[in-house]
Structures are given as C-alpha cells and as structure tokens.
Amino acid sequence: MDPLVPTGIFGGSFNPIHTGHIGLARDILRLANLEEVWFLVSPLNPFKRAAGDLLDDRLRFDMVRRALCDEPHLVASDYEFALPKPSYTWQTLAHLRADHPDRQFSLIIGADNWLAFDRWAHPDDILHHHPIIVYPREGYPIDKASLPACVSLVDTGLYPISSTDIRHRVAQGEPVEGLVPPAIVPMVEEYYK
C-alpha cells in the first residue's frame, strides 16, 4: 500500500489572496514536509450575506487559481462550494477524507485560531483524524510545551499583510503591487475599487 500523500489544508476567504498567504504556504510546505498545500476558498456563509465586502465566491476562487498558476505545489480548491452550508471545518475534513483516501490532510491554522480551537465545532474529531499545523500570529503567543502530540507550531515568521488593508488601499486608489501576485493586480484593482 502506498503511503498517504501529505497535504495541507489552508482555508480562508482569500478576499483577496495576497503574497503573505503564498509566502506562508511555501514556508509550511517546506517546514512540515508536505507534498501540496490546498487553498480551500470558503464560500460566503448564507447567514452573513449582509457582510457586503466579501467578493463573489467564483471571483475569489478565480483570483486564487491565477495567483497560484506558477506554484506547482500550491493548489486552488473550490471543494467547499459543493458542500452543505454553512460549512464547518470538521465536516469539510470528513468529506475530504472520504473523497481522497490516498491523502493525509493536515489542517493549517493561525495561532489566533488555535487559541480559540476549543470553541470550534467538534474539535476533538479534527484532532483525532488530522495533524494540525499552527503558524505564528503577532499578539497570539503559543506555549509549544502545551500542544497535543498531533499539533505542531511552525516557525514561519510573520507576514504582516492583510486582505482588509489591500481592499482599503484599492478603495483609496493606492497601489497594491508587491502585496498581491502580479497576475492578479488588475483583477484586484477592478473588483475592489
């Protein structure tokens, strides 16, 4: 029997995807010995339709796909789009396990999310079935000694870029070169103006 393909799951709205997301995924790919990192674009939660600043699901997915076109081990995924809404991480991971039995999925989350992990839906189910890779976030210190055996803290350094800041810059007519991949600069400037 072939070994399972180690695959990271990096979920988010990616509204828009930026160079910090990509740099982080590259670091985690190397530090956690993964074959691929899948960028799971989260669909708009039907209960949050009033949010207003979240771009259409397909447009965000298309930007992620284009942004990763030259990154052979980073994969854009619209997998959650076909799942029942709202989609919870434990359900998504269960579906992924069933649909891809050849892969070992590791969940990639920030330190802020790890510190709130006990409030997620079915955290024990996730911990039972999946390694968790935690990356640092400023202001959210993690005590490595307190982590369960299946949770690892990777030293990626910090990527101080935010999608919120990029949207604000576009709305103000400021440049976003260097903050988002060159392939999607025109899309970002068009979609978020």
Strand content: 15-25%
CATH architecture: 3-Layer(aba) Sandwich
Spatial arrangement of strands, main beta sheet: 3-2-1-4-5-6
| Structural class determined from secondary elements | alpha/beta
Q: What are the secondary-structure elements, in order, as H or E?
A: EHEHEHEHHEEHH
**What are the low-pLDDT stretches, counting only 5+ consecutive residues below 50?**
none
Largest sheet: 6 strands, parallel
Rounded mean pLDDT score? 94
Helix residue percentage: 25-40%
CATH superfamily: HUPs
**Count of separate structural domains:** 1
The count of helical stretches stands at 7
Structural overview:
It catalyses: nicotinate beta-D-ribonucleotide + ATP + H(+) = deamido-NAD(+) + diphosphate. Residues 9-169 form the Cytidyltransferase-like domain. Belongs to the NadD family. Keywords: ATP-binding, NAD, Nucleotide-binding, Nucleotidyltransferase, Pyridine nucleotide biosynthesis, Transferase. InterPro entries: Cyt_trans-like, NadD/NMNAT, Rossmann-like_a/b/a_fold. This protein has 193 residues and is an alpha/beta fold. It has one domain: Rossmann fold (3-Layer(aba) Sandwich), CATH 3.40.50.620. It contains seven helices and six strands, in the order E-H-E-H-E-H-E-H-H-E-E-H-H. The protein has a six-stranded parallel beta sheet, sandwiched between helices. Helix 1 (19-31) links the parallel strand 1 (5-12) and strand 2 (36-41). The longest helix is centred in the N-terminal third of the chain and has 13 residues, at 19-31. The N and C termini lie far apart (52 Å). The mean pLDDT is 94.
